[in-house]
Amino acid sequence: MAAAAPAEVEQDTKGEKFAYQAEVDRLMDMIINSLYSNREVFLRELVSNCSDALDKARFIGLTKPEVLADNEKLEIRVRTDPENHTITIEDTGIGMTRDDLLNQLGTIARSGTRKFMEAVKESKGDANLIGQFGVGFYSSFLVADRVKVQTKHPEDDKQWVWESRAGSHEFSIYEDSEPSLVRGTRITLFLKEDSHELGDAFKLKSLLKQYSEFISFPINLYASKREPKQVTDEEATKKKQEEEDTKAKEENREAKKIEDVTKTEYEEVWDWEVQNDNKPIWSRNPKEVTKEQYDSFYKTTFSEFLEPLAHSHFNVEGTIEFSSLLFVPGMAPFEQDMMKRSKNIRLFVKRVFISDEFDDDLLPRYLNFIKGVVDSSDLPLNVSREILQENKIVRVIRKQLVRRSLDMIEEISKREESKDDYKTFWDAFGRNLKLGIIEDTANRDKLASLLRFHSSNSEDLTTSLDDYVGRMKKEQKAIYYMATDSVKAAKAAPFVEQLAKQGFEVLYLTEPIDEVAVTNIGKYKEHPLEDVSKENLDVSGDGKAEAKEETEAKFKGLTDFMKEALGDQVEKVTVSTRLTDSPCIVVTSKFGWSANMERIMKNQTMADSRAMEYMKGRKIMEINPDHELIKALNSEVEAGRKDRAGELAAVLFETALLTSGFSVDSPSDYAAKVYRMMSGAVGGSSSTTGDGKKEEKAGEDGTVETVTPEVVTDEDPWKK
Ligand code: ADP
User: Fold this and answer.
1) Cβ-count burial of 235 within 10 angstroms (0-12 exposed, 13-18 middle, 19+ buried)?
2) pTM exceeds 0.85
3) For ATP, which residues are the binding ones (predicted)?
4) Do 287 and 305 lie in a common domain?
């Protein structure tokens, strides 16, 4: 079976030539020239491809037994030829047609290629990453300067050869003149000189042990074994005979013939030997499987190089029986797309691999990062998506998988000895749980307890709602939160002022999804969650109501005036009890969009513009009656200087918009108003822009309007 290298070299120019697709070509260059560490992963990748091909053959064989008829065996064979420096890896899987060869191995771009190349740059040339990106086959060029693939697919009556040399930028395909495969694929690697050491059976044995122990088909390695053999120990026999002879002589009798004395000798026997325990790990008793074995299974099965954060292995018995092994990954995938099928749950029926495309039916979308296997004996072997969707059994399985997944996550969150684990989890998958709050009403309470937020309590650490509740003051009426786009902005928000002064903790919601999630929670353990940027937030102690009425009456003239001046931009102007340092804030009415939501909606191109206009109008301006500016403005209104007061009110409003997290409609108009006021204050007639450029034009009232190009370009000063 080992190829004779010299003869093969002559055939090198055979067949039709094809250029690699451009990206694949660059990938090949990278594999050949810049991946240095962990090159031995090629074996794991190729064996894993064999395993996939065998899964496919077994699956097709369920409905078309003739596919398996000529060779019932489903197995992998690995063999090395140290003299010629080749390794062959062969499977009796589904094989490839000529089209498959052409498309899968070279001419069609693989979606993970670019991502892989980026990841490699960051990892300083670690080949270990390769399997995650669906380009595992090319890992053969890590160790080989020439690769030959021979393959036979049941639906193609010819056996085909694919061949390529490292660095040639092309590959060739031709019909195999000596077809030798019944079904499946044989890959021959002609090892590079610096990889010759890998062509050693003992080395391969240890690599298979390390990387492929949990492949569920037998992996046979052609290797030598020391076998014990009983042989005659000539010397011992002779000695014993001599003793007997002497003794016989002394006793004056005839000597007996001594039986041969044997000894054990070891001889080297070359033969095929199964290297892995191919009984599926999930069908074993959990008590007999070690954490290392689970981790190793996880890495092999899902091409991961980090240990999982947690696993859960369980068997459900009763009317419905199934077993499952689930994992929480140790890191987020390189390509995270909640809308895409993740191929993370491998479904088996009676240990036959059925598909990894049923994730959506087996787990809700928000848990699509969970990886694992499910093996049921109750589902039909020909199970399809349609069957799954209507199947009662699937509903039971799904419910269990969700429960076990959440249990695993909860367990990580409670680890006292390694608190970083939950931080790792949260950074990678926290957003998924927030999506869960919105989508999975049945598990909302449990999910809420798993959330983490930044808060005014600590700069760096995040807090759970339980910890927050534990710190709540006796008189505190609600769990307060402020939604914006960064911790910095949340801290600086005027709404937080009074609360902070009274020692109330405020959660900082800094991701777009936070606000929606928290609104969905509504109440946590009897405590309502309240947005501090909404109207009517009552943080004052009791007994202040009367004082408030009095102040309101005193400032009625001003609030009425301001409402008139601001027109449709606000729903109303009120006197605030929650401000200390700021002159005013803009809040939203209970049903309006918060500043954060408005920002998110504005950024969505699909946002309905009528809804936008309507919601924008639902703002309330709250003024601080103790602030010098407000007092001064009140005097202006009382004195009847309405023009000036009107302009002041407009600037105050727009400034409050900014500090409250909204954006102003026209930054240039806003800036012009500010400069006009500033020039009034300094008594001058012109001003200079930041970069020294002057751009002046006389306004109708004779004042100078200055426009700064910088401000104009920054449409949304609130954005990072
Ligand atoms: P992936 O396996 O993640 O799709 P690879 O680069 O490892 O990516 O393989 C590319 C494709 O080549 C596979 O999807 C499969 O179609 C085909 N292939 C590779 N090895 C084999 C094999 N041993 N038997 C059949 N097909 C194979």
Assistant:
1) exposed
2) no
3) 45, 49, 91, 96, 111-112, 132-137, 185, 385
4) yes
